[in-house]
Predict the structure of DUF1707 domain-containing protein.
Amino acid sequence: MRGFRAKDADRDACVELIEAAFVDGQLNSADRDLRVGRALSAETVDELQTLTRDLQLPPGAVVPTNTSASVQRPRPSLAPRVVGGVFALVVVGVVLFIGVVAVTMFASLGGESSSDVDSGTIFESELADPEIMFEEQAPAPTFEMTAGQVRTFLRAYEEQFGTLEVYEAGFYPTRVGVMVPVRGSRPRMERWSWTGEWRQDTEASRVTGPGGIVDLGTVDVRRMFANIDTARRTLDVDRGKLTHVLVNRWFDDRAAVNIYIGNQFGESGYLRTTPSGEVVRAYPYDA
């Protein structure tokens, strides 16, 4: 695995495991934030493995199957698929040749019009790409970290859960992760992900981490994105990019929107604001 380039799916899988370990009590908040920032800026699979090597898979956590970890197993040979494709093309060619000869013979005998040869073209177009029969394309994620997509998520969350309350919401480049409160006499929560559709990541468990509930309806989305631009410019992270935004409330503390900026060197900083957009404090990268 050493040296293989990481894909977005690998980074997302690593972040999901870190988040699940945080919920399980294996990591504190500072360690979680540091590992997530490094995972989102990792360039190789080896870097991602280093970040999760000491973590246990919590009960109920979903193990992603579409990552580059599959390169550890021998890849299936392409020969059968290529041979199958060639065989399919040969069969199609033979069928077309016989069809053309037959239509020509019928036309010369006063039978069907030679224009009926066009029906063979339709058949050819359906089978011209045999790869379609062997591979199924995975749907691309539909969530992107834009103001419009965040507003779409908020509407979807309220429709799904009948509220805008969360213990925490994490906005990442291609997904949103939320700690959804479970009603009852004791504080419990479920972890869900949104990528344009919902996925439940864990069953109900005790609340670890942020202990206060936040109303996402109080978040000013326009001001949040303005503050993201401010964070990029002012946190002294060289070639920094947005890694994630966490909306949470630590116990009796007030709700906060924490904007994290990181780079490929593992350097990071973050900007803390109120949900309405007022800057509380900046934590620039300290070399």
